[in-house]
Design brief:
The structure is a single chain. The chain has 366 residues and is α/β, with parallel strands linked by helices. Helix content is 36%, strand content 17%. The chain has a seven-stranded mixed sheet with strand order 1-7-6-5-4-2-3, with helices on both faces. A four-stranded antiparallel sheet has the order 10-11-13-12.
Length: 366
């Protein structure tokens, strides 16, 4: 740290390279990798607004408008999932923890999920002192779990590795049912694909990452509840310096809803759905090219915008290491095998560019 500052202009000049030039451009035609989307420019502008005012949602007198704006964003989104309300969090790790915390306060003594559950579910169980039981399959193994009324069942809608959406009617007699829809949740806004989320409205709680398929900057997510008043009351704390109870895990929080509201106002449900539909089609187009080429195989058909695939003649890791900077796919390990992982988070992704680049590498090695 310098003893004397170099001034804002010089500081920006020093930081522009690593922050902007050296960053991965998520809207590049060749970016077909992770669950991290490009963001609309209106979210950048409003993020700057919120930084300039530095509101603290913990106190109504320091953030009167910002608190109302977050409530508005939640009120707009919650009904699409059959929920009555909730609040924003920095990500679905905190959203999942908050939902499982509310379930524990309602009487849950253990967490049950499948092996597809995000690692945040195990973290939440550990932090809350709850047992965590993992199943391979809901329909085959739920009956082996005793005392269903004391269980919080965490059902995954869009697993990280494969994009799979578990049966949303699973564990129907659990004491609390939480749907981790961090990835696939926004499919409810798509006329083409919302059927994949059929039944989500029967959950007691739902988590959604806005910084995935709602195209928001980090860190933006929501935890939503079917009975929001009861859930919020169970995870609220007061203090002598607070005018209203503090709801949820976080204390101080900024005006995190403003970029989300700006995006929803700018593009509406139809605009968000168009981006999602375009990204889904790009994944399906990539899958068709993989299926048509004898040098490649797909593990399954794409699930909720995620395709696992590989070359037959070289490992996924070797192939990924030879990709040029303008093309990027990720990898994941499933049942001990490493696969390429292409995620339709980028509506600007160019499937032929990505596939042809990878096919050329495989052809050259062959």
């Amino acid at each position: 740290m310098p003893e004397s500052g170099i001034g804002p202009s010089a500081a920006l000049e020093h930081l522009a390279g690593p922050v902007l030039h050296d960053a991965r451009f998520l809207g590049s035609p060749g970016f077909f990798a992770h669950m991290d989307p490009p963001t609309p420019w209106v979210s950048w502008a409003t993020q700057l607004w919120t930084a300039s005012r530095n509101q603290n949602l913990l106190h109504p007198d320091t953030a009167p408008a910002a608190r109302d704006l977050e409530q508005l964003a939640v009120d707009w989104l919650a009904p699409s999932f059959g929920m009555t309300g909730g609040h924003m969090t920095p990500g679905s790790t905190v959203a999942n923890l908050t939902a499982i915390w509310a379930a524990r306060q309602a009487g849950a003594t253990a967490v049950v999920s499948t092996n597809e559950a995000h690692l945040s579910v195990g973290k939440a169980a550990h932090l809350l002192g709850l047992e965590h039981h993992k199943l391979n399959d809901w329909s085959a193994e739920w009956s082996t779990i005793s005392d269903h009324a004391s269980i919080v069942a965490v059902i995954t809608a869009g697993s990280t590795s494969t994009g799979s959406v578990e049966p949303l009617d699973a564990a129907s007699d659990a004491g609390w049912r939480h749907v981790d829809a961090a990835w696939a949740g926004p499919l409810v806004f798509s006329d083409q694909h919302r059927s994949l989320l059929a039944g989500v409205e029967q959950a007691d709680s739902v988590s959604v990452s806005a910084h995935k398929w709602l195209f928001q900057p980090k860190e933006s997510a929501l935890v939503l509840f079917r009975d929001v008043d009861k859930a919020h009351a169970s995870v609220s704390f007061g203090a002598d310096y607070l005018a209203v109870p503090n709801i949820g895990l976080l204390g101080s929080a900024g005006a995190r809803a403003v970029p989300l509201l700006a995006t929803l106002l700018s593009y509406g449900r139809v605009g968000i759905a168009d981006w999602i539909d375009t990204a889904m089609e790009a994944t399906e187009e990539l899958a068709r090219m993989v299926d048509a080429h004898p040098a490649f195989e797909a593990r399954t058909a794409p699930q909720a915008g995620v395709l696992n695939w590989r070359a037959l003649s070289m490992s996924a890791g070797q192939l990924q290491s030879q990709l040029p900077p303008e093309v990027f796919v990720s990898t994941t390990t499933i049942d001990g095998e490493t696969w390429l992982r292409s995620v339709g988070a980028n509506p600007m992704a160019n499937s032929p560019l990505v596939f042809d680049t990878i096919a050329a590498i495989v052809d050259e090695v062959a």
